[in-house]
Prior knowledge:
The chain is an alpha+beta fold. It has helices at 13-26, 29-38, 45-52, 56-69, 89-98; strands at 43-44, 72-77, 80-85. The chain has a domain at 25-95: Winged helix-like DNA-binding domain superfamily/Winged helix DNA-binding domain (Arc Repressor Mutant, subunit A).
Amino acid sequence: MHAGIEGFHVPEPEVVDQATELLRILSDPTRLRLLYALSQGETNVACLAEIVGANPAAVSQHLSKLRLSGAVRARRQGTFMYYTVADPAIHTVLRAVLGATAPAPAEATPS
């Protein structure tokens, strides 16, 4: 039986569960493109649909999943919903996954 190695540890189960959920959400190409677009600033469903080349209803469904996961947040202005990245850590994940082409939080344009 192995006695363990001093200094080795693993994250708490809750942390691993949160990371797993985020990676699951990011595993869809459309959601990844939506997050990349939103990392550049706030925008609405119609603009996002045009940017990612998807139909607005599909984009709304993906944004709903992203909201439930906590990856994006939304605000209503009149009849439109505007979306933005909710967690600055998303920018770090996007840069790690997509490389240096992903904008850093400081490069994101405010709305």
